[in-house]
Amino acid sequence: MTSLNILSGGAAQGLVRGLSEPFKAQTGLGIDGEFGAVGVMADKLRAGTAADLVILTQALLAKLAEGNLVTPSSIADVGRVETALAVRSRDPKVTVKTETDLREVLRSADAIFVPDIKASTAGQHVAKVLDQLGIAYEVASRLKIFPNGAAAMRELASSTATRPIGCTQATEIIATDGIALSGALPPGCELVTMYTAGVTTRAAHPQEAAALIALLTGADHKELRQRAGFTG
């Protein structure tokens, strides 16, 4: 079966998966591609990886459009995603209302599961927050870093640590079995990221890519976006 190829931040994986059947019914195409750290996905497109559609942060999409890799008129916002905390489903949720709360939660964790701290949106933010809280050196040996948020959350789910915690995009937490969303980061440490979709200038299936963007952003699927962890 012919497939639409996408390069996407991991934050959108659950939403895309939820729309695969409606998309197939509308276009006859499946959906193939990669989900991962947004910086890695953008670099893959720049390096010539075949893709019809990209779903990345708003800032990255703008840069790719400037570089003539994404068609500007096709770009549309999908929704905002919070960076949040995660615990194993069997563990009690943590309450984090202030920077002090967050500092103590992270200090008490014996394993902290995060995505790539250089190439992923959430991972970069985690590194910044640890510096801001003054505990980056203290917790460095407990950081468990994975290529993307989805991988980090799967590892958190199967962790045998006593008090593990995770931090990544809320959408990746919601989409992973065995873990639970434990709330957003507190004021002063929060991050809300707008994710945006666009058709690539080298798309083999530009019309179908535009059709998927319409599904991703359409009013008919607002509830699905909310369940996946996207806000308006």
What's the CATH superfamily of the largest domain, by name? Periplasmic binding protein-like II
CATH topology of the largest domain: D-Maltodextrin-Binding Protein, domain 2
Under the CATH scheme, the architecture of the largest domain is 3-Layer(aba) Sandwich
Question: Would you list the SSEs in sequence order as H and E?
Answer: EHEHEHEHEHHEHEHEEHH
* Chain-averaged pLDDT: 95
Amount of helix: 40-55%
Number of helices: 10
Report how far apart the termini are. 34 Å
Radius of gyration, taken over Cα atoms and rounded to an integer in Å: 18 Å
Helices and strands: which structural class? alpha/beta
User: Given this structure, which CATH class of the largest domain is correct?
Assistant: Alpha Beta
Per DSSP E runs of 2 or more residues, the count of β-strands stands at: 9
Largest sheet: 9 strands, mixed
Shape: elongated
Number of domains: 2
Unreliable runs, pLDDT <50, ≥5 residues? none
Name the beta content range: 25-35%
